[in-house]
Design a protein that fits this description.
Blueprint lengths: L7 E4 L11 E7 L12 H17 L2 E8 L4 H10 L5 E3 L3 H17 L8 E7 L12 E4 L14 E4 L4 H9 L3 E6 L15 E5 L12 H4 L10 H11 L7 E2 L2 H14 L6 E3 L2 E2 L1 H10 L1 H25 L1 E5 L2 E5 L4 H24 L8 E3 L5 E3 H6 L2 H12 L6 H27 L6 H6 L7 H25 L7 H4 L3
Parallel strand pairs: 2-3, 2-5, 3-4, 5-8, 8-9
Antiparallel strand pairs: 1-5, 6-7, 9-10, 11-12, 13-14, 15-16
Helix pairs in contact: 1-2, 3-4, 6-15, 7-9, 8-9, 8-10, 10-15, 12-13
Length: 484
């Protein structure tokens, strides 16, 4: 998907005041895109390459490696040209990732090539999955294309939990660690943060990232003289997408804890069948009365929170006999937009409820490793996947392993089409359920316009709250101390 950007780049950067301190980089990612010359990560790869070269010129670049993509000629050309002195320039595979993590752990432990006072930046830009029995989440790895942007079905994956031990060694050795995760669902990587590790995430825990949003613009602000906190705030404030970027500072975590769970349902939208954070929540509410009550309760709590923030942050100014109120955001418009969007979502939920659409959460086991909900089965065009896979199998240049993989996929797609046909035969009322979400009012893009408008307010709200909370303490933080 061209909307999504997920690159895993581990960049070891040490820029402390001491002249001997170095910046070390490990760059990882670029996987999950379909075959072709380019990936959606090429722009940020070039940008981080420019930063790498600027550090080479000043003598501040230390150890660096790049494990990125594999199979896209233009992307590989950037990888090979932009990082001339990198110790490793290789494809992004599970084996290479494990080897690089082990190599950096060894260098940290020995303290010769990466010394106390240095910095290590782990920069991540690849397709990212929702959290699944992990501390963090998983990202795409290898050369296979992603078919599902929530589960990364179709691609190989690697869990970022593998960074946990490296993080501990960095702290023990006095090396500041920065983790920049630009992938979808990267808010889950915040679980790696501590007082020695700054984590920047392009999105909230349950949101996609977009090349037009934070993930596509953050690397532009990785510039000498900035720090991770300032680069984050500058990029976030200028954003327009409904992505909810997060940083692991005290201020960032406080705002996330107060706001994300309450606001995130209204940053969700449906773009098409493959980019849809709205429908799952509507289906859950339609099939669970308690969930619907909780949603109404949370909305009241959100409304109260915004009212309280308005009172606390607003400044009243007087000029002659007139007084005016200055707020960090137009709270009246924000609250009205939230109410309007909630009314639309409630209407859609009731329509889904009337057709007993809660059944769409029913899971069907396709084989030992694949299962889908009714909604997933009905959403997908399985005949298209069958046809594409049959064309791939017709190639005479397939390896034995690839042929086996395509044959396995073909069996899954055919079985899924059979199950879809059976569901529609036994439940004819479900045939048009997608239209309830897809074609209300002005069409399927209405939800995106609402979410984008709320996101525009949210960016100002976050920035205003961050500044206010920052004024409450004189303490620095590891993100501010991580100099770029």
């Amino acid at each position: 998907m061209k909307y999504f950007l997920i690159t895993l780049i581990a960049s070891s950067m040490s820029i402390v005041n001491a002249e001997t301190s170095k910046t070390h980089m490990m760059i990882l990612g670029g996987s999950g895109d379909p075959a072709g010359k380019q990936t959606h990560f090429d722009g940020s790869l070039s940008q981080i390459g420019n930063y790498y070269q600027s550090k080479l010129k000043t003598g501040e670049m230390g150890q660096a490696s790049i494990s990125f993509d594999g199979g896209h000629s233009d992307t590989d050309a950037i990888k090979n040209s932009q990082f001339p002195n990198a110790a490793k320039k290789q494809d992004f595979t599970n084996e290479n990732l494990k080897q690089e993590i082990s190599r950096f752990k060894k260098m940290l432990s020995e303290g010769k090539e990466i010394k106390k006072g240095d910095q290590l930046l782990i920069y991540i830009n690849s397709h990212g999955a929702a959290k699944d029995n992990e501390k963090t989440h998983s990202i795409a790895i290898g050369s296979k294309a992603v078919k599902n942007l929530d589960t990364l079905d179709g691609a190989e994956v690697a869990s970022l939990d593998q960074l946990e031990e490296l993080k501990k060694i960095a702290k023990d050795k006095g090396v500041k660690l920065g983790i920049v995760d630009l992938s979808c669902h990267s808010g889950n990587t915040q679980n790696l943060a501590d007082d020695n590790t700054c984590v920047v995430s392009a999105t909230g825990r349950n949101h996609y990232s977009y090349t037009t949003g934070f993930s596509g613009n953050f690397t532009k602000n990785i510039l000498p003289g900035e720090n991770l906190e300032s680069a984050f705030l500058k990029t976030r404030k200028a954003g327009l997408d409904a992505d909810f970027p997060v940083i692991s500072t005290r201020e960032g975590q406080l705002i996330e804890n107060q706001l994300y769970d309450l606001l995130s349902p209204y940053l969700n939208y449906r773009l098409d069948a493959s980019v849809d954070k709205l429908t799952p929540g509507l289906l859950k509410a339609a099939g669970d009365s308690q969930n619907l009550c909780e949603k109404n309760r949370d909305f009241k709590e959100l409304d109260k929170f915004l009212s309280d923030v308005d009172k606390i942050t607003s400044v009243t100014t007087k000029k002659y006999f007139l007084s005016s109120k200055e707020s960090i955001v137009n709270f009246e418009d924000l609250k009205k937009t939230l109410r309007d969007y909630k009314n639309v979502q409630d209407k859609l939920t009731m329509q889904l409820k009337a057709m007993n659409a809660g059944r769409l959460n029913t899971k069907v086991q396709i084989n030992e490793s694949n299962s889908y909900t009714w909604a997933e089965l009905l959403n997908a065009d399985w005949n298209k996947w069958v046809k594409m896979t049959e064309q791939q199998l017709a190639s005479k240049n397939l390896s034995a392993n690839d042929r086996k993989m395509y044959e396995r996929n073909l069996a899954v797609y055919k079985k899924s089409q059979e199950e879809k046909t059976k569901i529609l035969r036994d439940n004819p009322g479900l045939a048009n359920y997608k239209d309830v979400v897809k074609n209300y009012d002005e069409g399927r893009n209405l939800s995106k316009r609402w979410a984008d408008k709320i996101a525009e307010h949210e960016k100002k709200l976050f920035d205003g709250l961050y500044k206010q909370y920052a004024r409450q303490t004189t303490k620095s933080n590891v993100c501010r101390e991580f100099k770029l």
